[in-house]
Amino acid sequence: MAKAVAVCRCRICGQEFKKEAFKYNRREADSWKAWAEENINTCPACYRKEKSMTEKDGRKVIRVHYADYKANYDFSNIKTVDYDEKEKSIGIIIPEKLYIEFEVLDKEGKREIQGGEISYEDLDALKYRLKEMAESEDSGMRATIVRVECIY
How far apart are the first and last CA of the chain? Predict the structure, then answer.
């Protein structure tokens, strides 16, 4: 048995993740690894989110656990569909666009508010990039999301 570990990058959020497989021999494992790095482009978290989307009245709806909703989706004007008491999940209507404002703190300590419209699919990627920028020693810049509004 040979273990294959592919390092892939998510097309949605931009994070790197690993996929593992056990194959009969090294040649087969190397072949699978090359295939996986080329073809697997959605991390498990984004895949679950994508699969939980449904359509209701022509709009995309995603089901999330209520705690996840309060932590990540509690925007000022987000529209919800229903609450499932048994699963403790809530349906969220996906907005066409989001207006985001974030505060940027540069190397000299100067604060600036920036904002703009992005698609819902780009929100996770933006959060990941802001986190990456905050963890980077080289940039010296910090950015924090201040306000998110849904545009339906």
Answer: 52
Are 61 and 87 in the same domain? yes
**Taking CA 51 as the corner, what is the angle to CA 48 and CA 54, rounded to the nearest 5 degrees?**
135
Q: For the chain, give the number of residues.
A: 152
SS (H, E, C) 45-67: HHHHHHHCEEEECCEEEEEEEHH
**Per-residue pLDDT tens over the stretch 109-148:** 788 888 888 887 787 778 777 777 777 766 667 777 777 7
If asked whether residues 87 and 107 sit together in one domain, one would say no
E-assigned strand segments in the chain: 2-9, 16-23, 53-56, 59-65, 80-84, 89-93, 97-105, 111-118, 142-151
Number of domain units in the chain: 3
Dist. CA 31–CA 36, nearest whole Å? 9
pLDDT digits 0-9 by tens, 93-109? 888 888 888 888 877 77
Are residues 143 and 125 part of one domain? yes
Domain span at residue 136? 97-151
